[in-house]
Please model this.
Amino acid sequence: MNEDWEQRVLAAWATLDDHPQERAADFRAVIDALAAELPDGSPLGLFERACAWDSTGHSDKAVPLYREALAKGLSEQNGYRGRRAKIQLSSSLRNTGQAEEGVKLLTPELNGPSDELDDAVRATLALCLSSLGRDREGLSLVLGALAPHLPRYQRSMANYARALVAQAD
Model:
């Protein structure tokens, strides 16, 4: 979409915290109106609508929209939003009792191109793993993501992260 539309979407999202839960429908209406400016079935519009449902506490309503956005080529249209959709869908799947599907969706992202969402992939995947009782694997992911950000002990923490899953094997 054009830069004006993108700026209006960013402006709308900047107001999310201005909408208390009892006014969540008002926020979703703003996002719906922006999505309606796009062609019918636009993966970008579906993604923004999914985010709005998700961010207002309705993972169950977000899941089918995320799925549809991805099925209609969101990742090909906008790789960054496609990756966000996978992260957010996995989180929503976890919230709706489908953590195994979240693990299957996010695991390939560990080997995908690196970007600023890498730590979010690992954190969300760790939550999904924890929901499945695979806490050691989840902790390993989180420690591995945290290690490069530490002022000291990066090597030690990275080694501990690897050891957590090596011991499980």
Q: What stands out?
A: The chain has a mean pLDDT of 94. The chain has two domains: 3-133, 135-169. The CA atoms of residues 22 and 56 lie 10 Å apart.
